[in-house]
Amino acid sequence: MKLKVIVHKAEEGGYWAEVPAINGCATQGETFEELLTNLYEAVEGCLSVDVDQLDVSENDEVLEIAV
Fold first, then answer.
1. What is the dihedral angle through the alpha carbons of 17, 18, 19, 23, rounded to the nearest 10 degrees?
2. pLDDT tens-digit profile of 4-40?
3. Residues forming a β-bridge with 6
4. Is 30 a member of any domain?
5. What is the CATH number of the domain that holds 38?
6. 18 lies in which domain range?
7. Is-contact 54 40, C-beta < 8 A?
8. Is the C or the N end of the chain the one with fewer CB within 10 Å?
9. CA atoms within 13 A on the CB side of 29
10. 32 is a domain residue
């Protein structure tokens, strides 16, 4: 899966970024390298769902796919 990310230079220094395809997914970093690391963590966190909290019956099957 490829996602477009908008990277901004922060006025106080460093960077911040947002992922328009994922509502509310944003992060920051003091360096560009730190920002990239934080972006991967932010996207993973925004896309992760706790299956235990979903209404899944015994007739349902939960799959994990890579895109």
1. 160
2. 999 999 999 999 999 999 999 999 999 999 999 999 9
3. 18
4. yes
5. 3.30.160.250
6. 6-49
7. no
8. C
9. 15
10. yes
Residues 5 and 1: their CA atoms lie apart, in Å, by 13
Non-local CB neighbours of 4 within 8 Å, separated by 6+ positions:
19, 20, 21
pTM greater than 0.90 (yes/no): no
Q: Are 46 and 19 in contact (CB under 8 A)?
A: yes
For residue 8, the cross-strand partners are 16
Q: Is residue 66 part of a domain?
A: no
What is the SS3 string spanning the chain? Answer: CCCCCEEEECCCCCEEEECCCCCCCEEEECCHHHHHHHHHHHHHHHHCCCHHHCCCCCCCCCCCCCC
